[in-house]
Amino acid sequence: MTPTSVAFALLVLTALLLHWTGPHTSRWQNSVLLGSSALFYWSWSPAWLPVLALSTLVDFWAARKIGDATGAPTLRRFALWLGLGSNLGVLLWFKYAGLLLDSGSLALPIGLSYYTLIRVGYLLDLRYGRIVAERSLLNFATFIWFFPQMVAGPITRARAMLPQFSSARSWRDVNFGSAAAALLLGWTLKAYVADWIGPALVEPVFASSARFGAAAHWLALVSYALQVFGDFAGYSLLAIGVAALFGMSLPVNFDRPFLSRSMPEFWRRWHITLNTWLFDYVFGPLTTGGGVLHGRIAYNLVLIFMISGLWHGAEWTFVIWGLLHGLALAAHHGWDVWYRAQCRRDRRFVTVRKSGAYAWAAWVLTQGWFLGSLVLFKSSDLASAGRYLGALFVAEGTAFPSLDSMALASLLGALLVVAWHHAEGLSLGARLRARFDALPAPVIGAVLGLGLAWLLIFAPLARTSFIYAQF
User: What is the pTM of this model?
Assistant: First the structure.
């Protein structure tokens, strides 16, 4: 049951009907959400539903003990290590034990990487006294199981979500227009951009690199960047839109990353909830905790992104992908410190930094680094990645993906969707969007209707699963 399938739409509609027409209490509404979440998880991994239930009970008990300030310190420490150990132990086993046993990766329970970080963050927040333990098992389980975010996030925080589950929601507070806009954009990015570009332009070249020329390799690489963005940002928007229909607010996970002009800015815009989690719970304690890495920002940046690479998978391609981004962030940190010193000495450096040429150079370097790293992210091994990178400049083959008039129109349409979405983050795009929103309702309806008709024709439902579901 993927979030772009008919079955998922029926699940959401049924849950909405029960959620809003039943008793106006948080107990009823959360019971509907928890039951819907259990059904959704069962459709993916029925054998693991009891395991998820048991681990939820363990975390609930551990959290109550950790949050009990009057409890015995030994019991509180035991509860913390039990909660952290059980969650991280299961994650490490499924993601890495198969490789250590030389038997390949084990089948990963859906959403494991995401809800593990949600649970660990909750336990650590309790440990640091940032929140109080949730006393309602129903509220806690609904927070952990909430089905819109189960496949691939966003990675939520207890301090933001538990208060939303603790009180009844009213349909009068729901911005249905905003929810519908998020759903439409998310579905477009996933079902049209990602699911068309991947099979048509990405997979043929990456699967048979030797057949294709350098231009085809560049086209496939740029297309893969659009595919990953459409797939992951599309899922995040679908999750945000569905949650909004139930009166719940999920955090933004993507903020137009292709506008970024530095690697720090890029990672503030791409997979925001994972990066903020890593910086809050790993980078912060390492940098300010008084250990051997205290104050060593560059080293910690490299370490954090190598952890991020390992989070994606126990392959050298992911480790080096993370290393490259860590090095880029460390290099930017050093450059920024040096350049700020020059600006204080000579105002001409300030003028250069504000120039259009500097902005364009920074944008090209940032996006080029991201593109190059995607070869590692997509390739199955280092040898394949090396061959692909070489073929970007000197290729053995001469073939080029077949693009008839319909395929070319689809490619241009996909590019237009991503470009327009990013343009809304610029002043000109924001003004154009405001003018569009000011048009008469029938005109807006006609435009959206034509767009929806195009999608229904050229974006079949549930064509592929989500890329990030495998992580």
Answer: 0.88
